[in-house]
Amino acid sequence: MVSLTKKFDREIKDAKKEISELSKRLEVYEKEEVERGVEEKLKKAEREIDTLTKLLGEERKRREKAERERDEAIEMAKKMPKEKETRPKPTEHDVPKVPPSEEWVGLSPGDRIQIVVKGHDDLTKTVIVSQEGVITFPLIGEIYVLGLTVERLAEIITYKLGKDYIVDPQVTVTMEAEKDLPPKISICVLGGVHRPGLYRYHENMTIMQAIAMAGGVTDKAILNKIKVVREERGKREVILVNYDRFMRKGDKRENILLKPDDLIVIQEAPF
After folding, report:
1. Residue 25 pLDDT more than 70?
2. Do 129 and 142 touch, CB atoms closer than 8 A?
3. SS in 3 state form for 200-252?
4. E strand or H helix at 39, and its extent?
5. Whether pLDDT at 43 is above 50
6. Most confident listed range (37-46, 88-97, 175-184, 257-266)
7. CATH match of 112-175 with 3.30.1950.10
8. What does pLDDT average to over the chain?
9. CB atoms < 10 A from the CB of 107, how many?
10. Which CATH fold would you assign to the domain 186-266?
11. Which of 137, 108, 262 is nearest to 200 (CA)?
């Protein structure tokens, strides 16, 4: 009986030892499985990182190529010879009479324009030029558009979007039809400005705003005797404005308010 008890004790002891060893082996196995799972996840993450890195590299190359092509186009445009103006310059006696339906030289406060970026519906917007000559566009922010043509504004938006946000953006800017509005009233800027022509008159418009809309004065412009020719009740009045005094001394008296159909004449030095 005693020997049988001892035999059972040994068997129980051996069984406990075997169970302990199996438990240790199981812990090692589970640890290896966990490590193997972590290692697989790490490899998967590394593969995804490699793929993203490759895609980013390709996108960077496409953007660099687009920027090079844009810069080359800009350089080519700069080198193209400009057409010489052969027509005589108009004088203050040649005030053009333009019907309201004719296309205007540049954008003015109150103009409603539609901007479309092909393939980007979220960037298709209708905006109105503020009294300060500014519009606000997504991603870019504020753009000063006073006196710009819609074609030039499209070029500016294309450049700004292509520089930082979109590869090869296709931008179209059009003037929306203005229904139920009174006929447009113009002022005319002639002589020593970069973009002489007709510009839409708006309330409280000043002579400095008109000159800015016309692209600013040229290097040859005579600044101390700018003429504002005004006709009221059949009488002609000529007002002299000293642009130089306004710019140098800030004399606000020189920044006179304009009236509809005013003609601004800026003479140029002969050389």
Report:
1. yes
2. no
3. ECCCCCEHHHHHHHCCCECCCECCCCEEEEEEECCEEEEEEECHHHHHHHCCH
4. helix 2-79
5. yes
6. 257-266
7. yes
8. 76
9. 24
10. Outer membrane lipoprotein wza fold like (3.10.560)
11. 108
